[in-house]
Amino acid sequence: ISSLMSLLVLLRAGRKILTGHVSSSVSCRFAATSTSSCLPSSARLNSPHNNLRRFVRSSFTSTNRSLPATVISPNVTPRYRNMSSSSSSSAAAADHAAKRQKTSAAAGGDDAAAFQLGPQTFRVPMSMHRENRQRLVSQLKQLPALPTGALVLLEGGKLVNRYDTDVELLFRQESFFQYLFGVKEPSAYGAIEVDSGKTHLFMERLPAEYAVWMGAIEGTESMRARYGVDAVHYADTIAEVVAALQPSKVLLLDGVNSDSGLRAKAAEYEGLAALPCDKELLYPTLVECRVIKSKQELELLRAVNRVSSEAHKEVMRRARPGMAEFELESRFLHETYSKGGCRFTAYTCICGSGNNGSVLHYGHQGAANDKVAKDGDMCLFDMGGEYHCYASDITCSFPVNGKFTDDQKIVYNAVKAANDAVQAAMKPGVAWKDMHRLSERAMASELLKAGLLCGELDELCKHHIPALFQPHGLGHLMGLDVHDVGGYPAGTQRSTEPGLKSLRCGRTLEAGMVITVEPGCYFIDVLLDPALADPVKAQFLNADVLARFRGTGGVRIEDDVIVTPTGCENMTKVPRSVEEIEALMAEGRAMYGDGKQ
Protein backbone atom coordinates (compact mmCIF):
# COMPACT_ATOMS: atom_id res chain seq x y z
CA ILE A 1 0.00 0.00 0.00
CA SER A 2 2.84 2.36 0.85
CA SER A 3 4.44 1.74 -2.56
CA LEU A 4 1.15 2.33 -4.35
CA MET A 5 0.65 5.57 -2.46
CA SER A 6 4.14 6.62 -3.53
CA LEU A 7 3.24 5.97 -7.13
CA LEU A 8 0.07 8.02 -6.78
CA VAL A 9 2.05 10.95 -5.35
CA LEU A 10 4.51 10.66 -8.20
CA LEU A 11 1.81 10.67 -10.88
CA ARG A 12 0.09 13.70 -9.36
CA ALA A 13 3.43 15.51 -9.23
CA GLY A 14 4.06 14.50 -12.83
CA ARG A 15 0.82 16.12 -13.98
CA LYS A 16 1.85 19.35 -12.28
CA ILE A 17 5.24 19.22 -13.97
CA LEU A 18 3.69 18.60 -17.38
CA THR A 19 1.49 21.65 -16.92
CA GLY A 20 4.39 23.78 -15.71
CA HIS A 21 3.47 23.99 -12.00
CA VAL A 22 6.43 22.11 -10.55
CA SER A 23 10.09 22.30 -11.50
CA SER A 24 13.33 20.99 -10.14
CA SER A 25 16.92 21.95 -10.75
CA VAL A 26 18.21 18.56 -9.69
CA SER A 27 19.66 16.75 -12.69
CA CYS A 28 19.23 13.06 -13.42
CA ARG A 29 21.83 11.57 -15.69
CA PHE A 30 21.58 9.20 -18.60
CA ALA A 31 23.35 5.87 -18.25
CA ALA A 32 25.13 6.28 -21.55
CA THR A 33 26.80 3.25 -23.11
CA SER A 34 28.03 5.16 -26.12
CA THR A 35 31.56 6.27 -26.89
CA SER A 36 31.43 9.90 -27.86
CA SER A 37 30.57 13.42 -26.88
CA CYS A 38 29.25 16.55 -28.51
CA LEU A 39 25.91 15.21 -29.70
CA PRO A 40 22.52 15.28 -27.95
CA SER A 41 21.14 11.87 -27.13
CA SER A 42 18.69 10.63 -29.74
CA ALA A 43 16.97 8.66 -27.02
CA ARG A 44 16.26 11.56 -24.68
CA LEU A 45 12.75 12.25 -23.48
CA ASN A 46 10.74 15.34 -24.35
CA SER A 47 11.32 18.36 -22.15
CA PRO A 48 8.31 17.97 -19.81
CA HIS A 49 9.29 14.36 -19.19
CA ASN A 50 12.84 15.45 -18.46
CA ASN A 51 11.44 17.67 -15.73
CA LEU A 52 9.53 14.72 -14.35
CA ARG A 53 12.66 12.56 -14.55
CA ARG A 54 14.59 15.05 -12.45
CA PHE A 55 11.72 15.26 -9.99
CA VAL A 56 11.66 11.46 -9.69
CA ARG A 57 15.29 11.31 -8.74
CA SER A 58 15.35 14.25 -6.39
CA SER A 59 12.13 13.44 -4.58
CA PHE A 60 12.67 9.74 -4.08
CA THR A 61 16.33 10.12 -3.17
CA SER A 62 15.58 12.72 -0.55
CA THR A 63 12.60 10.92 1.02
CA ASN A 64 13.95 7.36 0.74
CA ARG A 65 10.76 6.17 -0.94
CA SER A 66 10.86 3.14 -3.20
CA LEU A 67 8.92 1.73 -6.12
CA PRO A 68 7.48 -1.78 -6.15
CA ALA A 69 10.08 -4.48 -6.65
CA THR A 70 8.43 -5.49 -9.93
CA VAL A 71 9.77 -2.28 -11.51
CA ILE A 72 13.21 -3.91 -11.51
CA SER A 73 12.41 -6.97 -13.56
CA PRO A 74 14.22 -10.23 -12.81
CA ASN A 75 13.33 -11.45 -16.31
CA VAL A 76 15.55 -9.06 -18.28
CA THR A 77 19.29 -8.75 -18.62
CA PRO A 78 19.77 -5.52 -16.67
CA ARG A 79 22.07 -2.57 -17.24
CA TYR A 80 21.89 -1.64 -13.58
CA ARG A 81 20.44 -3.17 -10.44
CA ASN A 82 19.90 -1.59 -7.04
CA MET A 83 20.19 -4.19 -4.31
CA SER A 84 18.35 -2.38 -1.56
CA SER A 85 15.08 -1.90 -3.44
CA SER A 86 15.00 -5.19 -5.36
CA SER A 87 12.90 -8.10 -4.21
CA SER A 88 14.74 -11.19 -3.05
CA SER A 89 13.90 -12.96 -6.31
CA SER A 90 15.30 -10.04 -8.31
CA ALA A 91 18.49 -10.01 -6.27
CA ALA A 92 18.83 -13.77 -6.66
CA ALA A 93 18.41 -13.47 -10.42
CA ALA A 94 21.05 -10.75 -10.55
CA ASP A 95 23.47 -12.77 -8.45
CA HIS A 96 22.86 -15.85 -10.58
CA ALA A 97 23.55 -13.91 -13.78
CA ALA A 98 26.70 -12.40 -12.31
CA LYS A 99 28.00 -15.80 -11.15
CA ARG A 100 27.29 -17.30 -14.58
CA GLN A 101 29.15 -14.43 -16.24
CA LYS A 102 32.05 -14.81 -13.81
CA THR A 103 32.31 -18.56 -14.49
CA SER A 104 32.15 -18.04 -18.24
CA ALA A 105 34.77 -15.29 -18.10
CA ALA A 106 37.14 -17.56 -16.18
CA ALA A 107 36.61 -20.26 -18.79
CA GLY A 108 37.03 -17.84 -21.67
CA GLY A 109 33.53 -18.63 -22.94
CA ASP A 110 31.34 -16.63 -25.27
CA ASP A 111 29.81 -14.73 -22.35
CA ALA A 112 33.19 -13.65 -20.96
CA ALA A 113 33.49 -9.97 -20.01
CA ALA A 114 33.60 -7.97 -23.23
CA PHE A 115 32.22 -4.94 -25.04
CA GLN A 116 30.27 -5.45 -28.25
CA LEU A 117 27.72 -3.00 -29.58
CA GLY A 118 25.91 -5.59 -31.69
CA PRO A 119 26.33 -9.11 -33.10
CA GLN A 120 27.95 -7.85 -36.33
CA THR A 121 30.39 -5.54 -34.53
CA PHE A 122 33.86 -6.18 -33.17
CA ARG A 123 34.06 -7.87 -29.78
CA VAL A 124 36.50 -6.22 -27.36
CA PRO A 125 37.45 -8.47 -24.42
CA MET A 126 37.87 -6.75 -21.10
CA SER A 127 41.14 -8.66 -20.82
CA MET A 128 42.55 -5.93 -23.07
CA HIS A 129 42.07 -3.42 -20.27
CA ARG A 130 43.36 -5.87 -17.68
CA GLU A 131 46.53 -6.22 -19.77
CA ASN A 132 46.80 -2.42 -19.91
CA ARG A 133 46.58 -2.27 -16.12
CA GLN A 134 49.22 -4.96 -15.76
CA ARG A 135 51.52 -3.05 -18.08
CA LEU A 136 51.07 0.12 -16.03
CA VAL A 137 51.76 -1.70 -12.76
CA SER A 138 54.87 -3.28 -14.25
CA GLN A 139 56.20 0.08 -15.42
CA LEU A 140 55.44 1.78 -12.11
CA LYS A 141 57.30 -0.90 -10.17
CA GLN A 142 60.46 -0.04 -12.09
CA LEU A 143 60.42 3.54 -10.77
CA PRO A 144 62.91 4.02 -7.91
CA ALA A 145 60.71 6.73 -6.38
CA LEU A 146 57.69 4.43 -6.05
CA PRO A 147 57.06 3.31 -2.46
CA THR A 148 55.58 -0.01 -1.48
CA GLY A 149 51.84 0.16 -0.96
CA ALA A 150 51.09 2.79 -3.62
CA LEU A 151 47.62 3.15 -5.10
CA VAL A 152 46.74 4.45 -8.60
CA LEU A 153 43.55 6.53 -8.58
CA LEU A 154 41.74 7.90 -11.62
CA GLU A 155 38.44 9.68 -12.03
CA GLY A 156 36.35 8.96 -15.11
CA GLY A 157 34.48 11.44 -17.25
CA LYS A 158 31.27 13.16 -16.30
CA LEU A 159 28.11 13.95 -18.21
CA VAL A 160 27.89 17.46 -19.61
CA ASN A 161 24.73 19.40 -20.39
CA ARG A 162 24.26 21.64 -23.38
CA TYR A 163 24.87 25.03 -21.80
CA ASP A 164 22.01 25.81 -19.36
CA THR A 165 19.55 23.28 -20.79
CA ASP A 166 18.58 19.82 -19.59
CA VAL A 167 19.84 18.27 -22.84
CA GLU A 168 22.70 15.96 -21.96
CA LEU A 169 25.51 15.52 -24.45
CA LEU A 170 26.03 11.88 -25.23
CA PHE A 171 28.77 10.52 -23.03
CA ARG A 172 32.26 9.52 -24.17
CA GLN A 173 34.64 8.19 -21.54
CA GLU A 174 37.84 10.03 -20.63
CA SER A 175 40.64 8.33 -22.56
CA PHE A 176 43.07 7.45 -19.73
CA PHE A 177 40.18 5.96 -17.76
CA GLN A 178 39.00 4.05 -20.82
CA TYR A 179 42.49 2.69 -21.39
CA LEU A 180 42.66 1.15 -17.92
CA PHE A 181 39.07 0.16 -17.22
CA GLY A 182 36.89 0.23 -20.38
CA VAL A 183 33.96 1.58 -18.36
CA LYS A 184 31.05 3.07 -20.32
CA GLU A 185 29.25 4.80 -17.47
CA PRO A 186 30.06 8.34 -16.34
CA SER A 187 30.92 9.52 -12.82
CA ALA A 188 33.09 6.51 -12.01
CA TYR A 189 36.43 6.15 -10.25
CA GLY A 190 39.05 3.45 -10.66
CA ALA A 191 41.84 2.36 -8.32
CA ILE A 192 44.69 -0.11 -8.75
CA GLU A 193 46.77 -1.46 -5.87
CA VAL A 194 50.25 -1.37 -7.39
CA ASP A 195 51.76 -4.15 -5.27
CA SER A 196 49.08 -6.73 -6.11
CA GLY A 197 47.43 -5.29 -9.21
CA LYS A 198 44.03 -5.61 -7.54
CA THR A 199 41.52 -3.33 -9.24
CA HIS A 200 38.58 -1.47 -7.73
CA LEU A 201 35.81 0.40 -9.54
CA PHE A 202 33.58 2.97 -7.85
CA MET A 203 30.28 3.44 -9.67
CA GLU A 204 27.50 5.95 -9.17
CA ARG A 205 24.72 4.78 -6.84
CA LEU A 206 21.39 5.11 -8.64
CA PRO A 207 17.93 5.38 -7.08
CA ALA A 208 15.42 2.62 -7.78
CA GLU A 209 13.29 5.07 -9.78
CA TYR A 210 16.09 5.22 -12.36
CA ALA A 211 14.66 1.95 -13.69
CA VAL A 212 11.43 3.70 -14.77
CA TRP A 213 13.16 6.22 -17.00
CA MET A 214 16.48 4.74 -17.99
CA GLY A 215 16.25 0.94 -17.62
CA ALA A 216 16.83 -1.77 -15.07
CA ILE A 217 19.55 -1.12 -12.50
CA GLU A 218 22.66 -3.27 -12.36
CA GLY A 219 24.28 -4.17 -9.08
CA THR A 220 27.93 -4.11 -8.09
CA GLU A 221 28.49 -7.85 -8.45
CA SER A 222 27.16 -7.83 -11.99
CA MET A 223 29.35 -4.87 -12.93
CA ARG A 224 32.36 -6.56 -11.37
CA ALA A 225 31.87 -9.53 -13.68
CA ARG A 226 31.05 -7.36 -16.71
CA TYR A 227 34.24 -5.31 -16.42
CA GLY A 228 36.48 -8.12 -15.20
CA VAL A 229 37.76 -6.32 -12.10
CA ASP A 230 38.34 -7.47 -8.54
CA ALA A 231 35.80 -5.31 -6.73
CA VAL A 232 33.09 -2.75 -7.45
CA HIS A 233 31.92 -0.27 -4.82
CA TYR A 234 29.58 2.68 -4.91
CA ALA A 235 31.24 6.02 -5.49
CA ASP A 236 29.78 7.51 -2.34
CA THR A 237 31.90 5.03 -0.32
CA ILE A 238 35.22 5.86 -1.99
CA ALA A 239 36.64 7.83 0.94
CA GLU A 240 36.10 4.94 3.34
CA VAL A 241 37.29 2.23 0.95
CA VAL A 242 40.47 4.03 -0.09
CA ALA A 243 41.30 4.97 3.49
CA ALA A 244 40.87 1.33 4.53
CA LEU A 245 43.45 0.30 1.93
CA GLN A 246 45.98 2.49 3.79
CA PRO A 247 47.96 3.51 0.70
CA SER A 248 51.49 4.76 1.28
CA LYS A 249 50.99 7.09 -1.68
CA VAL A 250 48.00 7.84 -3.91
CA LEU A 251 49.19 8.33 -7.49
CA LEU A 252 47.05 10.91 -9.28
CA LEU A 253 46.90 11.69 -13.00
CA ASP A 254 48.16 15.22 -13.55
CA GLY A 255 50.02 16.36 -16.65
CA VAL A 256 49.82 18.46 -19.81
CA ASN A 257 48.92 16.94 -23.15
CA SER A 258 51.78 17.94 -25.48
CA ASP A 259 49.40 18.10 -28.44
CA SER A 260 46.54 20.15 -27.02
CA GLY A 261 48.34 21.98 -24.21
CA LEU A 262 45.46 21.02 -21.89
CA ARG A 263 45.94 19.43 -18.48
CA ALA A 264 44.57 16.05 -17.45
CA LYS A 265 42.22 16.26 -14.47
CA ALA A 266 43.43 14.62 -11.28
CA ALA A 267 40.86 12.65 -9.27
CA GLU A 268 39.04 14.54 -6.55
CA TYR A 269 36.72 13.62 -3.73
CA GLU A 270 36.10 14.91 -0.25
CA GLY A 271 38.75 13.60 2.12
CA LEU A 272 41.39 12.75 -0.50
CA ALA A 273 43.60 15.67 0.54
CA ALA A 274 44.14 14.00 3.91
CA LEU A 275 46.03 11.14 2.20
CA PRO A 276 49.62 11.30 0.91
CA CYS A 277 49.28 12.06 -2.82
CA ASP A 278 51.72 12.22 -5.73
CA LYS A 279 51.09 14.00 -9.05
CA GLU A 280 54.46 13.41 -10.71
CA LEU A 281 54.83 9.68 -11.30
CA LEU A 282 51.61 8.50 -12.93
CA TYR A 283 51.08 10.76 -15.94
CA PRO A 284 54.37 10.22 -17.84
CA THR A 285 54.30 6.50 -17.08
CA LEU A 286 50.75 6.06 -18.30
CA VAL A 287 51.42 8.13 -21.42
CA GLU A 288 54.32 5.86 -22.35
CA CYS A 289 52.10 2.81 -21.85
CA ARG A 290 49.59 4.24 -24.31
CA VAL A 291 52.25 4.98 -26.94
CA ILE A 292 53.02 1.28 -27.53
CA LYS A 293 49.89 -0.69 -28.36
CA SER A 294 49.22 -4.22 -27.16
CA LYS A 295 48.27 -7.03 -29.55
CA GLN A 296 44.63 -6.70 -28.52
CA GLU A 297 44.67 -2.95 -29.04
CA LEU A 298 46.13 -3.45 -32.51
CA GLU A 299 43.37 -5.92 -33.38
CA LEU A 300 40.78 -3.34 -32.31
CA LEU A 301 42.47 -0.60 -34.33
CA ARG A 302 42.60 -2.88 -37.37
CA ALA A 303 38.87 -3.51 -36.99
CA VAL A 304 38.03 0.21 -36.79
CA ASN A 305 40.19 0.80 -39.86
CA ARG A 306 38.40 -1.93 -41.81
CA VAL A 307 35.04 -0.36 -41.07
CA SER A 308 36.20 3.15 -41.95
CA SER A 309 37.99 1.95 -45.09
CA GLU A 310 34.84 0.27 -46.37
CA ALA A 311 32.83 3.40 -45.61
CA HIS A 312 35.28 5.56 -47.58
CA LYS A 313 34.97 3.17 -50.52
CA GLU A 314 31.20 3.42 -50.43
CA VAL A 315 31.41 7.21 -50.38
CA MET A 316 33.56 7.09 -53.52
CA ARG A 317 31.13 4.70 -55.21
CA ARG A 318 28.22 7.04 -54.57
CA ALA A 319 29.87 10.42 -55.18
CA ARG A 320 28.35 12.42 -58.03
CA PRO A 321 28.58 16.03 -59.22
CA GLY A 322 25.70 18.01 -57.76
CA MET A 323 25.85 16.34 -54.34
CA ALA A 324 26.45 18.47 -51.27
CA GLU A 325 29.49 17.64 -49.21
CA PHE A 326 27.32 16.85 -46.19
CA GLU A 327 25.41 14.24 -48.23
CA LEU A 328 28.61 12.28 -48.68
CA GLU A 329 29.53 12.86 -45.04
CA SER A 330 26.19 11.37 -44.03
CA ARG A 331 26.91 8.31 -46.16
CA PHE A 332 30.15 7.75 -44.24
CA LEU A 333 28.38 8.15 -40.90
CA HIS A 334 25.69 5.68 -41.95
CA GLU A 335 28.17 3.09 -43.16
CA THR A 336 30.43 3.19 -40.11
CA TYR A 337 27.51 3.05 -37.68
CA SER A 338 25.25 0.54 -39.43
CA LYS A 339 28.01 -1.82 -40.53
CA GLY A 340 30.55 -1.49 -37.72
CA GLY A 341 28.83 0.02 -34.70
CA CYS A 342 30.96 3.19 -34.81
CA ARG A 343 28.33 5.37 -33.19
CA PHE A 344 30.55 8.41 -33.49
CA THR A 345 33.52 9.64 -35.43
CA ALA A 346 36.95 10.19 -33.94
CA TYR A 347 36.85 13.86 -35.02
CA THR A 348 34.72 16.24 -37.09
CA CYS A 349 34.49 15.01 -40.67
CA ILE A 350 36.44 17.10 -43.19
CA CYS A 351 34.62 16.91 -46.53
CA GLY A 352 36.11 19.51 -48.84
CA SER A 353 35.31 19.73 -52.54
CA GLY A 354 36.99 22.12 -54.96
CA ASN A 355 38.89 24.89 -53.21
CA ASN A 356 37.56 23.73 -49.81
CA GLY A 357 40.09 20.92 -50.08
CA SER A 358 42.82 23.47 -49.36
CA VAL A 359 41.34 24.26 -45.94
CA LEU A 360 43.20 21.87 -43.66
CA HIS A 361 40.47 21.53 -41.01
CA TYR A 362 37.42 22.34 -43.10
CA GLY A 363 34.09 20.98 -41.85
CA HIS A 364 33.77 22.92 -38.60
CA GLN A 365 30.48 24.62 -37.75
CA GLY A 366 31.51 27.80 -39.52
CA ALA A 367 32.20 25.85 -42.71
CA ALA A 368 29.89 22.91 -42.29
CA ASN A 369 30.55 20.73 -45.35
CA ASP A 370 27.81 22.62 -47.16
CA LYS A 371 29.24 23.27 -50.63
CA VAL A 372 27.79 21.45 -53.66
CA ALA A 373 30.50 19.46 -55.46
CA LYS A 374 30.71 20.49 -59.10
CA ASP A 375 31.78 18.47 -62.12
CA GLY A 376 35.57 18.64 -62.28
CA ASP A 377 36.04 19.17 -58.53
CA MET A 378 38.52 17.16 -56.52
CA CYS A 379 37.19 15.93 -53.18
CA LEU A 380 39.37 15.67 -50.08
CA PHE A 381 37.50 13.62 -47.47
CA ASP A 382 39.18 13.12 -44.09
CA MET A 383 36.92 10.92 -41.95
CA GLY A 384 37.43 8.24 -39.31
CA GLY A 385 35.09 6.13 -37.21
CA GLU A 386 35.58 5.47 -33.51
CA TYR A 387 34.72 2.23 -31.68
CA HIS A 388 35.15 1.59 -27.96
CA CYS A 389 36.91 4.98 -27.94
CA TYR A 390 39.62 3.78 -30.35
CA ALA A 391 40.11 5.92 -33.44
CA SER A 392 40.73 5.70 -37.15
CA ASP A 393 41.88 8.61 -39.32
CA ILE A 394 41.72 8.16 -43.09
CA THR A 395 41.84 10.69 -45.92
CA CYS A 396 40.86 9.88 -49.49
CA SER A 397 41.17 12.32 -52.39
CA PHE A 398 39.27 11.68 -55.62
CA PRO A 399 37.52 13.49 -58.50
CA VAL A 400 33.78 13.72 -57.87
CA ASN A 401 33.03 12.76 -61.47
CA GLY A 402 35.18 9.64 -61.27
CA LYS A 403 37.88 10.69 -63.76
CA PHE A 404 41.18 12.45 -62.99
CA THR A 405 42.30 15.27 -65.26
CA ASP A 406 45.97 15.44 -66.21
CA ASP A 407 46.59 18.24 -63.71
CA GLN A 408 44.78 16.33 -60.97
CA LYS A 409 46.98 13.31 -61.70
CA ILE A 410 50.11 15.45 -61.29
CA VAL A 411 49.16 16.59 -57.80
CA TYR A 412 47.72 13.25 -56.70
CA ASN A 413 50.74 11.24 -57.84
CA ALA A 414 53.13 13.68 -56.18
CA VAL A 415 51.39 13.11 -52.84
CA LYS A 416 51.25 9.36 -53.40
CA ALA A 417 54.98 9.33 -54.09
CA ALA A 418 55.55 10.96 -50.70
CA ASN A 419 53.27 8.48 -48.93
CA ASP A 420 54.93 5.50 -50.61
CA ALA A 421 58.43 6.75 -49.83
CA VAL A 422 57.67 7.15 -46.13
CA GLN A 423 56.04 3.76 -45.71
CA ALA A 424 58.96 2.11 -47.51
CA ALA A 425 61.44 3.77 -45.12
CA MET A 426 59.57 3.42 -41.82
CA LYS A 427 61.01 1.07 -39.20
CA PRO A 428 62.06 1.14 -35.56
CA GLY A 429 64.92 3.53 -34.87
CA VAL A 430 63.95 6.02 -37.59
CA ALA A 431 63.28 9.60 -36.43
CA TRP A 432 59.81 10.80 -37.40
CA LYS A 433 61.12 14.26 -38.28
CA ASP A 434 63.36 12.57 -40.88
CA MET A 435 60.27 10.91 -42.37
CA HIS A 436 58.65 14.33 -42.60
CA ARG A 437 61.63 15.68 -44.52
CA LEU A 438 61.58 12.59 -46.76
CA SER A 439 57.94 13.21 -47.64
CA GLU A 440 58.73 16.84 -48.50
CA ARG A 441 61.58 15.84 -50.81
CA ALA A 442 59.58 13.11 -52.54
CA MET A 443 56.63 15.40 -53.24
CA ALA A 444 58.80 18.38 -54.24
CA SER A 445 60.71 16.17 -56.68
CA GLU A 446 57.47 15.33 -58.49
CA LEU A 447 56.30 18.96 -58.54
CA LEU A 448 59.70 19.94 -59.92
CA LYS A 449 59.34 17.42 -62.76
CA ALA A 450 55.85 18.75 -63.54
CA GLY A 451 57.11 22.33 -63.78
CA LEU A 452 55.35 23.81 -60.75
CA LEU A 453 58.72 24.36 -59.05
CA CYS A 454 62.07 25.58 -60.38
CA GLY A 455 65.71 25.16 -59.38
CA GLU A 456 67.61 22.45 -57.53
CA LEU A 457 65.80 20.09 -55.14
CA ASP A 458 68.31 20.59 -52.32
CA GLU A 459 68.08 24.37 -52.57
CA LEU A 460 64.31 24.60 -52.61
CA CYS A 461 64.15 22.24 -49.64
CA LYS A 462 66.74 24.38 -47.85
CA HIS A 463 64.44 27.40 -48.32
CA HIS A 464 61.41 25.41 -47.05
CA ILE A 465 59.50 25.64 -50.34
CA PRO A 466 57.75 22.27 -49.73
CA ALA A 467 56.16 23.74 -46.56
CA LEU A 468 54.26 26.21 -48.79
CA PHE A 469 52.37 23.23 -50.20
CA GLN A 470 52.34 21.00 -47.10
CA PRO A 471 52.19 23.32 -44.08
CA HIS A 472 51.14 20.55 -41.67
CA GLY A 473 53.16 17.72 -40.17
CA LEU A 474 53.49 14.32 -41.80
CA GLY A 475 51.45 12.48 -39.17
CA HIS A 476 50.63 11.87 -35.53
CA LEU A 477 50.31 9.06 -33.01
CA MET A 478 46.83 7.53 -32.93
CA GLY A 479 44.97 5.28 -30.53
CA LEU A 480 42.37 6.20 -27.94
CA ASP A 481 42.54 9.74 -29.29
CA VAL A 482 42.95 10.62 -32.92
CA HIS A 483 45.90 12.81 -31.92
CA ASP A 484 47.11 10.43 -29.27
CA VAL A 485 49.24 11.33 -26.28
CA GLY A 486 53.02 11.00 -26.18
CA GLY A 487 54.09 12.86 -29.30
CA TYR A 488 56.58 14.97 -27.38
CA PRO A 489 57.80 13.31 -24.17
CA ALA A 490 59.59 15.36 -21.54
CA GLY A 491 62.85 16.76 -22.85
CA THR A 492 61.79 16.67 -26.51
CA GLN A 493 61.65 20.07 -28.18
CA ARG A 494 59.50 21.09 -31.13
CA SER A 495 61.27 22.44 -34.19
CA THR A 496 60.61 26.02 -35.23
CA GLU A 497 61.19 25.31 -38.93
CA PRO A 498 58.26 25.66 -41.39
CA GLY A 499 56.44 22.36 -41.72
CA LEU A 500 58.32 20.68 -38.88
CA LYS A 501 56.90 23.15 -36.35
CA SER A 502 53.48 21.62 -37.03
CA LEU A 503 54.69 18.03 -36.63
CA ARG A 504 52.68 16.38 -33.84
CA CYS A 505 55.27 13.71 -33.09
CA GLY A 506 58.95 14.30 -32.38
CA ARG A 507 59.87 10.74 -31.45
CA THR A 508 61.99 7.95 -32.85
CA LEU A 509 59.78 5.14 -34.13
CA GLU A 510 59.33 2.00 -32.01
CA ALA A 511 57.60 -1.27 -32.76
CA GLY A 512 53.99 -1.16 -31.58
CA MET A 513 53.44 2.52 -32.28
CA VAL A 514 50.46 3.48 -34.43
CA ILE A 515 50.98 6.61 -36.47
CA THR A 516 49.32 8.31 -39.43
CA VAL A 517 51.14 8.91 -42.71
CA GLU A 518 49.37 11.84 -44.33
CA PRO A 519 51.35 13.91 -46.82
CA GLY A 520 49.40 16.56 -48.70
CA CYS A 521 49.70 19.17 -51.41
CA TYR A 522 47.47 22.25 -51.22
CA PHE A 523 47.19 25.51 -53.11
CA ILE A 524 46.59 28.01 -50.33
CA ASP A 525 46.50 31.64 -51.41
CA VAL A 526 47.54 33.06 -48.05
CA LEU A 527 50.78 31.05 -48.30
CA LEU A 528 51.47 31.38 -52.01
CA ASP A 529 50.87 35.13 -52.35
CA PRO A 530 53.59 36.18 -49.84
CA ALA A 531 55.98 33.59 -51.29
CA LEU A 532 55.53 34.92 -54.82
CA ALA A 533 56.18 38.42 -53.50
CA ASP A 534 59.41 37.28 -51.80
CA PRO A 535 62.33 37.35 -54.29
CA VAL A 536 64.13 34.51 -52.47
CA LYS A 537 61.17 32.13 -52.52
CA ALA A 538 59.75 33.29 -55.85
CA GLN A 539 62.80 32.02 -57.74
CA PHE A 540 61.69 28.46 -56.93
CA LEU A 541 58.04 28.94 -57.99
CA ASN A 542 56.70 28.87 -61.55
CA ALA A 543 53.90 31.43 -61.24
CA ASP A 544 52.44 30.72 -64.68
CA VAL A 545 52.10 26.99 -64.10
CA LEU A 546 50.89 27.48 -60.54
CA ALA A 547 48.08 29.66 -61.84
CA ARG A 548 46.48 26.55 -63.39
CA PHE A 549 46.28 24.86 -60.00
CA ARG A 550 45.29 27.72 -57.72
CA GLY A 551 41.69 27.51 -56.63
CA THR A 552 41.52 23.75 -57.18
CA GLY A 553 41.95 22.83 -53.50
CA GLY A 554 44.35 20.08 -52.57
CA VAL A 555 45.12 16.40 -52.15
CA ARG A 556 45.88 14.46 -48.98
CA ILE A 557 46.49 10.71 -48.73
CA GLU A 558 46.29 9.50 -45.15
CA ASP A 559 46.89 5.97 -43.91
CA ASP A 560 46.93 4.54 -40.39
CA VAL A 561 50.15 2.56 -39.95
CA ILE A 562 51.56 0.18 -37.34
CA VAL A 563 55.31 0.23 -36.78
CA THR A 564 56.46 -3.40 -36.88
CA PRO A 565 59.83 -4.86 -35.83
CA THR A 566 61.03 -4.79 -39.46
CA GLY A 567 59.01 -1.99 -41.09
CA CYS A 568 55.35 -1.08 -41.02
CA GLU A 569 51.85 -2.42 -41.63
CA ASN A 570 49.27 -0.22 -43.34
CA MET A 571 45.86 -0.88 -41.74
CA THR A 572 43.99 1.34 -44.22
CA LYS A 573 42.50 -0.65 -47.08
CA VAL A 574 41.26 1.72 -49.78
CA PRO A 575 42.16 2.23 -53.46
CA ARG A 576 45.20 4.46 -53.72
CA SER A 577 46.39 4.57 -57.33
CA VAL A 578 44.62 6.71 -59.92
CA GLU A 579 43.59 3.56 -61.77
CA GLU A 580 42.21 1.86 -58.64
CA ILE A 581 40.15 4.92 -57.69
CA GLU A 582 38.70 5.33 -61.17
CA ALA A 583 37.81 1.62 -61.29
CA LEU A 584 36.02 1.80 -57.93
CA MET A 585 34.03 4.86 -58.95
CA ALA A 586 33.10 3.22 -62.25
CA GLU A 587 31.91 0.23 -60.22
CA GLY A 588 29.73 2.60 -58.21
CA ARG A 589 28.13 4.00 -61.36
CA ALA A 590 27.42 0.48 -62.57
CA MET A 591 25.80 -0.33 -59.22
CA TYR A 592 23.85 2.88 -58.58
CA GLY A 593 23.62 4.67 -61.93
CA ASP A 594 24.78 8.17 -62.81
CA GLY A 595 22.28 10.03 -60.60
CA LYS A 596 22.53 10.85 -56.90
CA GLN A 597 21.88 7.85 -54.65
Q: What does the secondary structure layout of this molecule look like, with pairings?
A:
Elements (H helix, E strand, L loop, with lengths): L1 H17 L28 H17 L24 H20 L6 E2 L8 E2 L1 H15 L8 E6 L19 H7 L7 E5 L5 E5 L6 H5 L5 H8 L3 E4 L3 H8 L3 E4 L24 E2 L3 H10 L3 H24 L6 H16 L3 E2 L4 E4 L24 E6 L1 E3 L2 E2 L2 E6 L6 H20 L6 H18 L7 H6 L3 H4 L44 E4 L2 E3 L2 H9 L1 H4 L4 H7 L4 E3 L2 E5 L4 E3 L7 H15 L5
Parallel strand pairs: 3-7, 5-6, 7-8
Antiparallel strand pairs: 1-2, 3-4, 4-5, 9-12, 10-11, 11-14, 12-13, 15-18, 16-17, 18-19
Helix pairs in contact: 1-2, 3-7, 4-5, 4-9, 10-11, 10-19, 12-13
Tell me what you see in this structure.
The chain is α+β, with helices and mostly antiparallel strands and 597 residues long. It has 19 helices and 19 strands. The model is unreliable at 1-110 (pLDDT under 50).
* Radius of gyration, in angstroms, nearest whole number: 27 Å
Given as residue ranges, the uncertain stretches (5+ residues, pLDDT < 50) are 1-110
Q: Based on CA inertia axes, which overall geometry fits?
A: globular
Q: Major sheet: order of its strands?
A: 6-5-4-3-7-8
Helix content: 25-40%
Determine the number of helices (DSSP H or I, runs of at least 4 residues).
19
Structural class: alpha+beta
Distance between the termini: 59 Å
Give a short account of the largest sheet: 6 strands, mixed
Number of strands: 19
> Which percent band covers the strand fraction?
5-15%
Mean pLDDT: 86
